[in-house]
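User: Could you go from structure to sequence for me? I need the amino acid at each position, not a summary. Structure tokens:
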């Protein structure tokens, strides 16, 4: 029997069959004309999905953390000042990361479950000058969303380079990289982009490329250096063979298919599908009487939810029961509240039916854990949101 347990963690997720098929296809040479064309097309499609018509896309083999590292390695030189806006674990990660490249880092850490307060950011930028500011579009440890438009506009206003960690948001949350003036948007294949783990993806603005060109010394990472990869990305787009490090041929074929599906669905349609799933999920947990980590719906992510366990129920008890009932969900990640909440990813290929099945599994698990509620009340609430769309 096929294992049909739904994978609904915040990445990796369920993938479309055509995407998975590309991974199993015979591997071709990374300089064969067919593959060059596929890679070139994938780069062109990345510009469309990130909405950055004059941005420079990069595709490297690695996870989202490599994409973060790549931005830091290329844009930071020792002594550069960086401002990190943190709404969770992934925001905090930039502090350590940028520090490794010699940045003097200031962190504005927002209260758990709250989003970035841009008045506070503006005061800090008024008070002090920075080369780089980072934000996390959706921090996957808290399900808190940050407004990338205000982020980009503030960066532009103060002449600071903006780096947006879009690992849990790109292709699932609204993003107009170029119009909003965001210099680097980075993501990883296994989240809302809809491809198994293994690719680090970035789109870099012209001003950020210029800032990188003005470095005094080469980037301190050999593998992540744009000096190495920029000519390769340009060559693939111009449909010429080139080589620095072997690209992940099958993953890039899968990426091209997924990006094609995203554009076929339509970015607006796709974002509103994610918006509905987010709303439906929150409606279900509210009906079940569960709180959430984000303190308001307006800054709750579309791509995942972070409900709190009801009193008397633990993750160690509940999550295996939910899994046995048909859905694999994730535990908490934020160290301050790790044992108090769980996470459910609803991005990429997730359909309304998948979400309803997962909520059904949560209800089964909660009932078996002894939590008192009316069975079906969460599924019903989610269904009402979906039916109204
Ligand atoms: C998953 C995630 C990362 C890290 O990506 P990996 O692929 O696990 O290295 C970074 N930032 C955010 C917001 C994420 O969701």
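Assistant: Here is the amino acid at each position, in order:
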């Amino acid at each position: 029997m096929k294992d049909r347990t739904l994978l609904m963690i915040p990445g990796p997720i369920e993938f479309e069959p055509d995407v998975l098929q590309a991974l199993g296809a015979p591997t071709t040479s990374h300089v064969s004309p067919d593959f060059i064309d596929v890679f070139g097309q994938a780069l062109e499609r990345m510009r469309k999905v990130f909405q950055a018509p004059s941005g420079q896309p990069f595709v490297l083999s690695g996870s989202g953390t490599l994409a973060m590292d790549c931005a830091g390695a290329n844009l930071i030189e020792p002594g550069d000042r960086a401002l990190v806006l943190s709404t969770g674990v992934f925001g905090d990660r930039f502090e350590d990361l940028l520090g490794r490249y010699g940045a003097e880092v200031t962190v504005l850490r927002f209260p758990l479950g709250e989003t970035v307060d841009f008045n506070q950011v503006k005061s800090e930028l008024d008070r002090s000058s920075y080369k780089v500011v980072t934000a996390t579009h959706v921090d996957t440890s808290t399900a808190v969303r940050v407004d990338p438009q205000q982020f980009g506009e503030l960066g532009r206003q103060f002449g600071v380079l903006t780096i947006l960690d879009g690992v849990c948001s790109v292709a699932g949350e609204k993003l107009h990289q170029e119009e909003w003036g965001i210099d680097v948007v980075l993501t990883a294949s296994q989240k809302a982009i809809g491809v198994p783990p293994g690719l680090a993806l970035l789109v870099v603005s012209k001003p950020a490329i210029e800032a990188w060109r003005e470095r005094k010394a080469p980037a301190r990472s050999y593998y992540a250096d744009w000096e190495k990869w920029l000519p390769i990305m340009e060559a693939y787009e111009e449909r010429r063979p080139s080589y620095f490090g072997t690209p992940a041929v099958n993953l890039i074929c899968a990426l091209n298919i997924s990006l094609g599906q995203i554009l076929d669905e339509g970015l607006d349609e796709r974002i509103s599908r994610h918006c509905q799933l987010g709303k439906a999920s929150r409606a279900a947990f509210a009906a079940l009487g569960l709180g959430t980590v984000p303190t308001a719906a307006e800054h709750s992510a579309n791509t995942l939810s972070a409900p709190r366990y009801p009193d008397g129920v633990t993750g160690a008890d509940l999550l295996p029961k939910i899994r046995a009932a048909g859905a694999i969900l994730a535990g908490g990640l934020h160290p301050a509240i790790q044992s108090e909440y769980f996470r459910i990813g609803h991005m990429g290929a997730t359909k309304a039916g998948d979400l309803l099945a997962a909520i059904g599994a949560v209800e089964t698990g909660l009932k078996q854990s002894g939590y008192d509620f009316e069975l079906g009340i969460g599924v019903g609430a989610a269904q009402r949101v979906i039916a109204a769309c």
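One structural detail worth keeping in mind: The chain has a mean pLDDT of 97.
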